[in-house]
Design goal:
It is found in: Cell membrane. By secondary structure, the chain is α+β, with helices and mostly antiparallel strands. It has 26 helices and 24 strands. Strands 15, 16, 17, 18, 19, 20, 21, 22, 23 and 24 form a ten-stranded mixed beta sheet that branches. The longest helix has about 50 residues.
């Protein structure tokens, strides 16, 4: 049996190759994602471990800020002297480092990274742990001198002697580049500008006598943990954050983890799609191979092979296929990881391919996924093979493999489909986002499974409709292609299912994204009343001088400021919620249309008051007149009175969770030194909107990080952000289509082999090569369009349900992108034509007499 299994595997290696490609793709994404994330993690662990001070003293921060206020928290520089007297301290250094800066050249072009990495202005001092070393020029001495990192200098063509402008929180200032510093470790992609410490304090923090942190070197023989205890005892517990080098590295790695998780989950999403679609391909391939080998299996049974041996034989073939696919996938995964490492280099993160990490988890995961998926997918065909009777050796192979009723599929599909439909109905009727999301996920899984199970039952009615015009347009060739697709519903259903999965995904996400876009458009129309919004390109705060420049622009009338602050509110139900609140000027009603359930803008923005979303208030037992404790950064606390409740479709635009906002007096009192995040600007009387825009753009030319947007620009910004998600979905769809095409090619190729004698007879009675190719292409097209119709129908249902979940968050508009749907159906027909090219060509080249004589 082992010899027979190996010979069978080698005899069908060409037919199994396409199935192996599906396994290879899925394993490649799993292996590539693990190798890349392990490499980045190891690289940055070394970076953080080698550059962190033994102990670091930082401002205390109990708030998890998602939207920076622009206020830089500091520690008194004087505590460095107290720390220096602690037993076990070898040395101390003042750190002055600020990320929310912009550096521009003489043409007002930013010299910072464009990939989302920060531009960091920091004080210059040299220790053994410095991530850079001075390689040309000299260190900065006094105001007006600075160093820049070598990578930024090369990319932006900055040379020693050039003058740059640094736009920082206290104001803009010019520096002359007097030296270049080169990274001695991995460059994380940031741009670095170094100033001497006194200049950094004055220009970046606005005053001397403070620092953003204090780095402490331990004396020989003193551990970091012991030194931390001693410094904490000296400074007082809870006054400052005191962290060891390991804790600093762990904190930095945790921040990096969010970036890594995005890449890892995206790649695992691709792997999941490849696995899911590949399962259909493998099941179909083995089912067809077993149907073609019915006589062979019957002979094995007649010669004494029992059911277990036949089943084991088929599963051994599947295991061999999984091993081959996993090995190729692991190699492809290493190549994919290398490509990602090189891509990070383009974005400024200089990883070294020679330090690539391939841990034991990677190959184990690769083979578990590859062999496991193939084994599971081949199990049902293997059971079917074990059921072949010895008498099948005397029967026609194709007839022996057909004729099984679909009653069981019908019952199971109906039950699972009913459960899925019930879950989706529950999702639509739910009033809580959490329960609606859970029901949506359950409904999506169950309806997908039900459609796959019941797919063969839908083949005959749907394909009769889809191919109904074939006989009229293509005559007998069209009729034969339609009947070929109807001949084996199981095979057609399984082939179409691979395409259906990808198209269901893209259909659902297209509806969801179109609905989100339409909802945001309506929300912007409804709430934004200003002529223009001045914002940073990445929504970070900008310096106060920008606000003043806008106010001084000729033709600018009302200017309303928006400023964010991280807060934690203690609510009557006992919960402490960390979120972001916003502060506004008193004229908010002139630039925004806020709908209130209780109170008004004057109440909300009065000193000592706060407003919140009515739904959030109801969930936490808050009423108008309630007094709630609010924690601000740097340990500042306030008792604010809830004076207004908003009833917006979406409160997210006026704060984050809870829709909290208050007056500018409040935010300036508790978050002093903050920066504005947006300016809402109306044109003065007598100034046209177009004129004001051109003047504002001229005013803001020295500040390339800040843009002027009207309503149309704001809508486009939202569309662009949603488009990023859509591009990911389209990429997943592309992968699903690639594997689905492999499935259609495999099905048609095996079908051609299965129908060799039939094709020979058709050719003998006058069917031309061209007609034969057309017949196979039409069969492929109708199968592909059948998969598209099922997938889009399922996707539309999912998309509507997703929109209902979004409606609970205020996004109530439903939009269906009919253009995308029509394009997908047309594209599916093209996919069918492409997939049929090779099988049709092979069929047309058959020798007629050899085909007729084929067994």
């Amino acid at each position: 049996m082992l010899k027979a299994t190996l010979r069978s595997f080698l005899a069908h290696k060409g037919r199994l190759l396409l199935s192996a490609l599906a396994v290879t793709l899925s394993v490649a994404f799993v292996a590539g994602s693990l190798i890349f994330s392990d490499t980045v993690t190891r690289t940055f662990d070394r970076l953080f471990a080698s550059t962190s001070a033994d102990v670091t003293v930082l401002p205390r921060d109990d708030l998890d800020s998602q939207m920076p206020s622009g206020a830089t928290e500091t520690v008194p520089a004087s505590i460095a002297d107290r720390i220096a007297r602690v037993d076990g301290v070898a040395d101390t250094h003042l750190d002055v480092s600020v990320e929310n800066v912009t550096v521009v050249d003489r043409d007002n072009e930013s010299v910072g990274p464009t990939t989302g990495a920060p531009t960091i202005a920091t004080g210059w001092y040299v220790t053994e742990r410095s991530p850079v070393e001075l390689t040309s020029g000299h260190a900065p001495k006094g105001p007006g001198e600075a160093l820049i990192d070598a990578d930024t200098a090369d990319k932006k063509d900055v040379r020693i002697g050039d003058t740059l402008t640094v736009i920082a929180q206290p104001g803009s200032f010019k520096v002359k580049i007097v030296g270049i510093a080169t990274f001695t470790t991995t460059n994380p992609g940031a741009a670095l500008v170094f100033l001497d410490i006194p200049t950094a304090q004055k220009e970046l923090l606005g005053r001397t006598g403070v620092a953003t942190s204090i780095a402490v070197d331990a004396a020989d023989g003193v551990s970091d943990a012991v030194l931390k205890q001693r410094i904490t005892a000296e400074l007082g517990s809870g006054t400052y954050e005191v962290e060891t080098a390991d804790e600093q590295a762990e904190s930095a790695t945790a921040q990096l983890g969010g970036f890594l998780d995005v890449i890892k989950y995206v790649m695992l999403g691709f792997a999941g799609i490849a696995v899911l679609v590949g399962v259909f391909l493998i099941v179909n391939t083995f089912s067809m191979l077993i149907a073609q080998r019915t006589r062979e299996l019957g002979l094995l049974r007649a010669l004494g092979a029992d059911r277990r041996q036949v089943r084991r034989s088929v599963l051994t073939e599947a295991t061999l296929l999984g091993l081959v696919g996993s090995t190729l996938g692991l190699a492809a995964g290493i190549g994919l990881a290398l490509g990602l490492i090189e891509l990070m280099g383009v974005f400024g993160m200089n990883l070294k391919s020679t330090e690539m990490v391939i841990g034991w988890v990677t190959p184990v995961s690769a083979y578990v996924v590859g062999v496991g998926v193939t084994f599971v997918a081949a199990y049902l065909p293997a059971r079917r093979a074990a059921g072949v009777s010895p008498m099948a050796a005397l029967a026609d192979a194709e007839i022996a493999g057909m004729g099984r009723p679909l009653r069981v599929r019908a019952v199971v599909g109906l039950i699972v489909g009913a459960l899925g439909a019930a879950a989706l109905v529950g999702c639509v009727t739910a009033t809580e986002t959490a329960s609606a999301s859970s029901l949506l996920l359950l409904g999506v899984v169950l309806t997908l499974v039900a459609t796959v199970i019941a797919g063969p039952l839908l083949v005959r009615p749907v394909i009769r409709v889809l191919g109904g015009l074939f006989p009229a347009v293509f005559g007998s060739i069209g009729r034969m292609s339609q009947r070929n697709a109807l001949r084996n519903p199981r095979r057609t259903g399984a082939t179409a299912a691979a395409l259906m999965v990808g198209l269901a995904l893209v259909g659902g996400m297209s509806v969801a994204s179109a609905s989100m876009t339409e909802s945001f458009d309506q929300q912007i129309d409804k709430t934004l009343g200003a002529d223009f919004v001045v914002q940073n390109s990445n929504f970070l705060p900008f310096p106060q001088e920008v606000t003043q420049k806008v106010r001084d622009t000729d033709g600018a009338g009302l200017v309303v400021r928006q400023r964010f602050a991280p807060v934690a509110v203690r609510l009557p139900d006992g919960k402490r919620v960390k979120t972001t609140a916003a502060g506004y000027d008193a004229q908010l009603d002139d630039v925004a249309h806020v709908t209130y359930a209780q109170g008004d803008t004057a109440d909300a923005l009065a000193p000592g008051n706060i407003a919140m979303d009515a739904g959030f208030a109801k969930d936490h037992d808050v009423r108008v007149g309630s007094t709630i404790p609010v924690d601000f950064p740097a340990g500042r606390k306030a008792e604010l009175t809830v004076a207004a409740l908003t009833d917006q479709d979406s409160a997210e635009g006026f704060g984050m969770q809870g829709g909290l906002y208050f007056g500018f007096e409040t935010i300036e009192r508790y978050v002093p030194g903050g920066q504005d995040s947006a300016l809402y600007v109306n044109a003065a009387s007598g100034t046209s909107v177009d004129t004001l825009r051109s003047r504002l753009e001229k005013t803001l030319d020295p500040y390339p990080q800040v843009q002027v947007r009207d309503q149309a620009d704001y809508k486009q910004l939202v569309r662009d952000q949603i488009a990023v998600l859509l591009y990911l979905v389209y990429a997943l769809l592309g992968l699903a289509i690639v594997i689905a095409v492999l499935g259609v090619v495999n099905t048609l190729a095996l079908s051609v082999v299965e129908r060799t004698r039939e094709i020979g007879l058709l050719r003998a009675i006058g069917l031309s090569r061209r007609q034969l190719r057309r017949m196979i292409r039409l069969e492929s097209v109708v199968i592909a369009v059948f998969g598209a119709v099922l997938g889009l129908a399922l996707g539309l249902v999912w998309g509507v349900c997703v929109q209902q979940v979004l409606a609970l968050q205020g996004m109530k508009a439903l939009a269906i992108p009919w253009g995308t749907i029509i394009a997908v159906v047309v594209g599916s027909a093209v996919v069918g034509i492409v997939a049929a090219l090779l099988p049709a060509l092979r069929a047309s080249r058959m020798n007629v007499l050899a085909a007729i004589a084929h067994e």
